[in-house]
Amino acid sequence: MAQASSRLFDNVGRMMNDAAGVADGVRREVESMVRAQAERFVMDMNLVKREDYDALRELVQTQGAELRALKAEVAALKGAGTGDTPPKP
């Protein structure tokens, strides 16, 4: 009788271990499906990539600085003029 109950407990233990393995496999499969669905959703939204955003932001900042420098140069040239401004059309 003791041997039968020991075998029963061994079988129950194996079944629980197998169930835990199956549950872990299901969890990984669900995570994979959710990740794939989220990636598809983001791709459908046509969002900009972070690298592209950073590159464009840097370009805009550089051009903004160049524009300010050119405006200052134009203002300095206008101030250095002789006062003779050509007539406006």
Put the structure in a nutshell.
The protein has two helices and no strands.
Report what the structure shows.
The longest helix is centred in the N-terminal third of the chain and has 44 residues, at 2-45. Helices cover 83% and strands 0% of the residues. The chain has two helices and no strands. The chain has two domains: 1-47; 48-78. It has helices at 2-45, 50-79. With 89 residues, it is mainly alpha-helical.
Q: Give the distance, in angstroms, between the N- and C-terminal Cα atoms.
A: 114 Å
Provide the number of structural domains. Answer: 2
Q: What is the count of DSSP helices, taking H or I runs of 4+ residues?
A: 2
Gyration radius from CA atoms, angstroms: 36 Å
The portion of residues forming beta strands comes to under 5%
